[in-house]
């Protein structure tokens, strides 16, 4: 590894105050990886890697070989909260009581790790949505299309988000005349009203709330990315509450990017927040593709039958 990318280290705070440390993989993780894969059965390896033939040694080598430039491997550790196991028939897994479904867990869930056969993933995702698991698909409705609005109080991050939209096949939504008129009456004359919208560093919590509401009400907008670069730290909770309030009645997904070393404030919940504008857009692109896949008609499955041809064999006596 040329240099350990410490800039990607992050602490995630769950709703109950427990923490999870997320960091890039290091060479000294090798012993732990070998111990992990040594405990997995052949069946577990089969399902974990989607049916691809592999073995523990090969995966350890592959994970340790990531260069953190073209390929990233993240390690989550130091979790101080509670773990729940889910299995349709087992009463417990490694001594941890198991529940038959995600929806049967009595407590709220922050993160679900899904490791099931491919044909069961959709059902588990639906259960996670019903349970309110803290993830993009769980908290937010799926985008109805690829048209994205970007709202920010700083031009630079907004441009990064717009460029990321283009890179991921998303479109910047053409705002309606009514939306532009509403933004014009709300924001200073020097604000940028095109998409992305730059409200300027002086943007207030009230302007964030109303602008969020206006954009989500626009029929030409399918999803919204809201960026906040705090000029003053005390503003952070108020702006987070304002964004959440502006999005509360919308049936469209909203993602946030709070540019802060402290991460997303709890007042922003249930809106997911990402460390970088590009990360938020990348997550939105995946959700958009998943939503498009979910909307496809199921159709009828064609059943084919093998063609039986006569077989001629020459037999020598």
Give a verbal description of the structure.
A hairpin with a 5-residue loop joins strand 1 and strand 2. The chain has ten helices and eleven strands. Strands 7, 8, 9, 10 and 11 form a five-stranded parallel β-sheet that branches. Strands 1-2-3 form a three-stranded antiparallel β-sheet, with no helix packed on it. Among the domains are: 53 residues, Rossmann fold (3-Layer(aba) Sandwich); 149 residues, Succinyl-CoA synthetase domains (Rossmann fold, 3-Layer(aba) Sandwich), CATH 3.40.50.261. The chain is an alpha/beta fold and 317 residues long.
Describe the secondary-structure layout.
Elements lengths: L9 E4 L5 E6 L5 H9 L3 H7 L7 H9 L9 E4 L7 E2 L5 E2 L2 E4 L21 H11 L4 H4 L7 E6 L2 H13 L3 E2 L4 H10 L10 E2 L6 H13 L5 E6 L6 H13 L6 E5 L18 H19 L22
Parallel strand pairs: 4-6, 7-8, 7-9, 7-10, 10-11
Antiparallel strand pairs: 1-2, 2-3, 5-6
């Amino acid at each position: 590894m040329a240099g350990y990318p410490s800039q990607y280290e992050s602490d995630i705070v769950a709703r109950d105050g427990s923490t999870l440390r997320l960091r890039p993989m290091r060479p000294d993780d090798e012993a732990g990886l070998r111990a992990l894969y040594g405990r997995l059965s052949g069946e577990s390896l089969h399902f974990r890697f989607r049916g691809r033939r592999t073995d523990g040694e090969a995966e350890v080598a592959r994970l340790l070989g990531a260069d953190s430039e073209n390929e990233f491997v993240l390690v989550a550790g130091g979790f101080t909260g509670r773990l729940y196991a889910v299995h349709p028939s087992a009463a417990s897994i490694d001594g941890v009581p198991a529940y038959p479904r995600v929806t049967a867990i009595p407590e709220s869930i922050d993160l679900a790790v899904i490791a099931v056969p491919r044909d069961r993933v959709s059902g588990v995702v639906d259960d996670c949505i019903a349970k309110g698991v803290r993830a993009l698909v769980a908290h937010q409705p799926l985008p109805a299309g690829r048209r994205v609005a970007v709202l920010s109080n700083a031009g630079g991050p907004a441009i990064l988000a717009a460029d990321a939209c283009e890179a991921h096949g998303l479109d910047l939504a053409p705002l309606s005349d009514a939306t532009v008129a509403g933004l014009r009456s709300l924001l200073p004359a020097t604000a940028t009203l095109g998409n992305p919208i730059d409200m300027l560093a002086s943007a207030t919590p009230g302007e964030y709330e109303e602008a969020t509401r206006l954009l989500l009400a626009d029929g030409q907008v399918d999803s919204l990315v809201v960026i906040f670069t705090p000029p003053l730290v005390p503003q952070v909770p108020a702006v987070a509450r304002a964004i959440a309030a502006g999005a509360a009645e919308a049936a469209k997904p909203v993602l946030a990017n709070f540019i802060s070393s402290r991460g997303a404030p709890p007042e922003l919940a249930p809106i997911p927040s990402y460390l970088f504008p590009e990360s938020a857009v990348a997550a939105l692109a995946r959700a958009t593709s998943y939503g498009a896949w979910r909307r496809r008609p199921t159709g009828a499955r064609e059943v084919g039958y093998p063609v039986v041809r006569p077989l001629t064999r020459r037999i020598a006596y």
